[in-house]
Amino acid sequence: MNAEISxxxxxxxxxxxxxxxxxIIDAAEAIFSSEGEEGISMxxxxxxxxxxxxxIYKYFSSKDDLFEAIRDLFFERLLKRIHEAIEExxxxxxxxSRCMKAYIETGLEEPNHYMMAFSASARMEPHVHSEDExxxxxxxxxxxxxxxxxxxxxxxxxxxxxxxxxxxASLHGLTNLMVCLEDFPSGMPGSEHVTREEVIDFHTDVIxxxxxxSA
Length: 215
Hints:
Blueprint: H1 12-35, H2 42-49, H3 53-56, H4 63-88, H5 92-109, H6 111-117, H7 134-152, H8 160-180, H9 196-211
Helix pairs in contact: 1-2, 4-5, 4-6, 4-7, 5-6, 5-7, 5-8, 5-9, 7-8, 8-9
């Protein structure tokens, strides 16, 4: 997996720094995949990419900082997918449905990255969110779509911030289930015919119906 780091400047030094950051994240994901979160340490990462621990700290001040960067990368990719969905246009309900599916698909494309992004080491404790945070920007897009749906009369009146948290929790639940259980849903008895695509379509449809004014 090659992590996509957004860097405005493109000097040789910037490219080298980006490659090292990508190598650190790649190494972290490889260790996470085989040994779990407990196997990751700054020393292990340094050994994996043949760097000194001191050099690693130039890129990430701590293990928590590394996990937070990985979480931001997930939302950076998600925002890109959301922008692409918005550019396609269409009515708000369809637009929301595409963005919801984009969340699930983004997590399934790189499951190890997704698991790390929401692991215990990712910064999840209460703090003052910045408008620069990728997660904040992603939720802002969702809130705006819900507000637009209400203005158009497609969605019922509700607190868009409450609704956005509920939608996120629902999407995260399904994504996490699919990431953790590779044989879900077809591996379950009696569900051999059920595909992931069908479950994703049904799940997002249920969410949209819950937001709609006719629900």
